[in-house]
Design brief:
heterodimer, A: alpha/beta, TIM Barrel, 8-stranded mixed β-sheet, globular, B: 83 residues, alpha+beta
Chain lengths: 412, 83
Amino acid sequence: MRIGNTGNFEYCRWAMEQDPSQSENIRDISPVDFFQKSMVPVRQALLAGEALSRCGECYQMEQHHKISGRQKQLLKTGIRLEHFEKTMASSPWVTEFSKGGATDQLPQDWQIELGNHCNSACVFCVPEFSSRLAMEHQQLGLITQLPPPSWTDDPKLVDRFIDTLTRSPHIQYLHFIGGETLITPAFKTILTALTSSGRNRTVALGFTTNLSLWREDIADLLSQFASVHLGMSLESFTPINDYVRWPVDLHTMNHMLARWTDLARQHNWYITLRTTPTILSLSSLLTVYDYAWEQGVSVESCNFLNRPEFMRPAVLPSRYRQQELDRMKAWIAQHTKDSDHGDIINIRDPNVFQQQLVQDLQSYVNYLEAESDQSWRLPALVQYLKTLETKRGNSILDYLPKYEELFRSAGY
Amino acid sequence: MKNFSDLLATELHLDVVINGVNRVAGLSESLIFDQDDVVTVDGIGVLPEYQHMAVDGVLHIDQPFYCWYHTVSGQGWLLRPCG
């Protein structure tokens, strides 16, 4: 289950965005009531064999053999798409499924979106996930009003949520994102409460940071958890990262990457590099896979970026795409082992990180080969970048000179 | 199968091959093999792949095969209902 930045509840962390005001909110309904009552129609639809429109991003990922959120969540109940019927019938949850969508269970797996407090303004991000970008958009006239306040701004709502967590004895996993988790006060508040209640001894906790800062107090709290999944956001080990993940610079990123990795290794945390490949970072994406291969960590992205539409990798025209495809295929050929076979669904199994890397990169090859050319979106991309650059004082041409002709032709 | 009702109405079996001999087992049936057998279940290699899990020369799968396989093949958490 997921609580979004405004306090909106969603049935799944991967469910495609809808207007949060259309969703039920922690201001109006308890997390438990949402899980046990409001989600009944969703469960009924799934039991009836319906394909839900809000599951579209997962279906797209599966089409390109990228392990989807749907697959990952099904796996936690023992269900796999291959052997689907038999694994479902064998699942420990089959008796629960037989209740027609009703349940008296409590959520065991949460994505907790803490709000849009963020010190970064990544070019592919949106105001709903970055307060800094929201301010910038407002100043540039791209939006007229700021996104609604974050639910974690209200201490009573945070307390209500903490109460749910501490009363749920079987919570397995909590994943926190922002904004930037480390600068969001509620992150520390919730970690402290979980530690005080002893939940830190049983809960696996995941969070994502943008590698812009270090927080000793948070590091100390995290070190008290039995299991931590550390996600570190980056797009490239080349200067394009500075442009895409503005204003975090490569030096800071590398310094923080080393520092958080050191802490993670001390405590045997699971490490993953979190990417959001876009048309801008595609050409240096392999630097991330090289690093991951050398360091023995995995690479994970939530989906194939859909919004903003003009940032999608599929906006890259075919003639440019082929160059990237060739390089990706060469990397895959160089790193594939004869023993690799079958899909890795549990992509967080550190024992198979090499196979996971090959599999994940292959999904981008599949995507780029299959998705239609959306280069008609290039003028919108160029217009947006030029608008941002008037305030940031940088130029995409300094970072991606190989695309100068392409961007010029689109109005740069 | 189109929906969950269909699933419940379908009789599902495991296709077990022991040393080249086929047999059918129930989805939740307890399975016992000699550690030196060569075994596949639904085409999934069980022995000798998981020979190291045999005790006193016997590999005893005392839970639904796919739950056991989830665990031994490193698929991560297997959440269970509480209560």
